Amino acid sequence: MGTRIRLTAAALAVGLGLAACTSPAEPAAPGPAAPSASTSATASGAPRRVVGSVIRFTAGDYAVDVTVGADSPAVRDLLSMLPIRLPFEDLSNREKIAYLPRKLQTDGSPGGDPEDGDLIYFVPWGNLGFYYDAEGIGYSDATIPVGRYNATAEQLEHLESGPVTVTLVG
């Protein structure tokens, strides 16, 4: 009889332990959200660390790496779209541009004053742009900075050779 009581007690303990590990039948009352740092993950799949991430644009054997320099809703939305393939073209001998498949979420994204070596998102047209001759281009709320790259105008011409694969590599 003592063995039977010990087995029943053991089974009861296991059952209570399992019950403690399950979710409650009703959702918990909402509380304040945990503070989020600029490096937290988003529901859309953007990486935990945004600033310092590397986006690679590959056309054939040629690649241009962009180091993300801003954490904004637009940049996070762009990162959540990757990988994608885009055709690039030249615009006014100032930048290489490509239109994204959809416009990015930009609410709360600061504008910028582009410089040579900047990758930007241009809100009205929904395009990315690699600036290589930004002389005379001033600040605009519609020009959202994404990051910096290290390539010449001649090197950027490789992006026009066919569809460019855009991936997050680091």
From TrEMBL:
<feature type="signal peptide">
    <location>
        <begin position="1"/>
        <end position="25"/>
    </location>
</feature>
<feature type="domain" description="Cyclophilin-like">
    <location>
        <begin position="58"/>
        <end position="168"/>
    </location>
</feature>
<feature type="compositionally biased region" description="Low complexity">
    <location>
        <begin position="34"/>
        <end position="43"/>
    </location>
</feature>
<feature type="region of interest" description="Disordered">
    <location>
        <begin position="24"/>
        <end position="43"/>
    </location>
</feature>
<protein>
    <recommendedName>
        <fullName>Cyclophilin-like domain-containing protein</fullName>
    </recommendedName>
</protein>
<keyword id="KW-0732">Signal</keyword>
<dbReference type="InterPro" id="IPR041183">
    <property type="entry name" value="Cyclophilin-like"/>
</dbReference>
<dbReference type="Pfam" id="PF18050">
    <property type="entry name" value="Cyclophil_like2"/>
</dbReference>
<dbReference type="InterPro" id="IPR029000">
    <property type="entry name" value="Cyclophilin-like_dom_sf"/>
</dbReference>
